[in-house]
Design brief:
Helix content: 40-55%
Radius of gyration: 19 Å
Strand order of the largest sheet: 3-2-1-4-5-7-6
CATH topology of the largest domain: Rossmann fold
CATH class of the largest domain: Alpha Beta
CATH architecture of the largest domain: 3-Layer(aba) Sandwich
Number of strands: 7
Strand content: 25-35%
Distance between the termini: 52 Å
Shape: elongated
CATH superfamily of the largest domain: Vaccinia Virus protein VP39
Largest sheet: 7 strands, mixed
Length: about 260
C-alpha cells in the first residue's frame, strides 16, 4: 500500500508536532471557551490538542493541502471542524475568532507576513495571535546530524543541501518578534520551547529523517549508490555514538511568538 502524504508526515514529524503542541498551548494560554483557528493545521496535531484542552471551545483547523484532512481527522472531535484554505487568504470574516495560532507553518510560506496579517484580520480585538516554528539551524538535532554528515561526505553538494534546509526567514526569536511587531500586534513576547524526539533505533530515525524534508529525500535519492551508502553508514555511526543500536532521545527546540490584537 502506498503511503499518503498524511502517512509520511505522521511518521516523520506528526509524533513530534503532537508533543510540541502541548507545550505551545501552555504558552498561548487561549481562553477555555470561545473560538480558535489553527492556520496550516496539517494532520491536526495542534487542532486536536486544543480540542482536548478546551472541550467547550469552537475550533477550526484549516490547511491548503486537502490530503492532510482525512475522513478520520474530520470526525475526530465534536468541537472541531476542518476546512481547506490558503493561510494568506483565509475564508473567514473579520473578527471571527478569539485566538489564532499556527504551528510549523511560517517558515514554509513564500509570504509569511501575509499569513500573519490574515490571522490578525480574522481575530477580534484583544485576541491572541501566536505561532511556533522549528529552530532549524540551532535546535533540530535529528536533521542537523544528517546534514553535517552530508556536508562532510558529499562535499559541496552536501553543503548546498545544508544551506538550503537552513535557509528559512525566521531563525531566531528576534526575527519573529519583528514580524509580530510589524503586523501591529501589542504585548509581543517570544520564547524557545524544547521537546524530546525519541527513536526506537536507527531504522526508526532514518525513516523519520527521509520523510522530514523533501530536499533531503531528493538529495539522498539522487546520490550514486556507493556514496548514498557511505552517507547512510556515516549517519548511522553518528546516531549510535559508539554504543549499540537502540533507543535515542534527541533534543529539538522551537521558536514561539505571541501578541495581542490592538483594540
Amino acid at each position: 500500500m502506498n503511503a499518503t502524504i498524511a502517512d509520511t508526515y505522521e511518521i516523520a514529524m506528526g509524533r513530534w508536532s503532537r508533543r510540541l503542541s502541548r507545550s505551545f498551548l501552555d504558552y498561548v494560554a487561549a481562553p477555555s471557551c470561545g473560538s480558535l483557528v489553527d492556520v496550516g493545521c496539517g494532520t491536526g496535531s495542534l487542532t486536536l490538542a486544543a480540542a482536548t484542552r478546551y472541550p467547550k471551545a469552537d475550533i477550526v483547523g484549516i490547511d491548503l493541502i486537502p490530503d492532510y484532512l482525512t475522513d478520520a481527522l474530520r470526525s475526530s472531535a465534536p468541537n472541531v471542524r476542518f476546512e481547506t484554505g490558503d493561510a494568506s487568504a483565509l475564508p473567514f470574516a473579520d473578527d471571527s475568532f478569539d485566538t489564532a495560532f499556527s504551528q510549523l507553518l511560517l517558515n514554509d510560506l513564500d509570504g509569511p507576513a501575509g499569513a500573519v496579517g490574515e490571522m490578525v484580520r480574522v481575530t477580534r480585538a484583544n485576541g491572541t495571535i501566536a505561532a511556533t516554528v522549528w529552530d532549524r539551524v540551532g535546535g533540530l538535532t535529528f536533521i542537523r546530524l544528517f546534514l553535517d554528515v552530508a556536508a562532510i561526505v558529499a562535499g559541496a553538494d552536501g553543503e548546498d543541501l545544508r544551506a538550503q534546509v537552513f535557509d528559512v526567514p525566521y531563525q531566531n526569536e528576534d526575527a519573529l518578534f519583528d514580524l509580530w511587531s510589524e503586523a501591529g500586534l501589542e504585548e509581543v513576547d517570544t520564547t524557545t520551547i524544547a521537546v524530546r524526539m525519541d527513536f526506537i533505533d536507527f531504522d526508526d530515525y532514518w525513516q523519520a529523517l527521509m520523510g522530514a524534508h523533501s530536499l533531503i529525500r531528493v538529495f539522498y535519492a539522487n546520490q550514486p549508490a556507493d556514496l548514498a551508502h557511505e552517507i547512510q553508514q556515516a549517519t548511522r555511526r553518528a546516531y549510535l555514538g559508539g554504543k549499540p543500536d537502540g533507543r535515542r532521545s534527541l533534543v529539538a527546540s522551537a521558536l514561539a511568538v505571541r501578541g495581542v490584537v490592538s483594540p
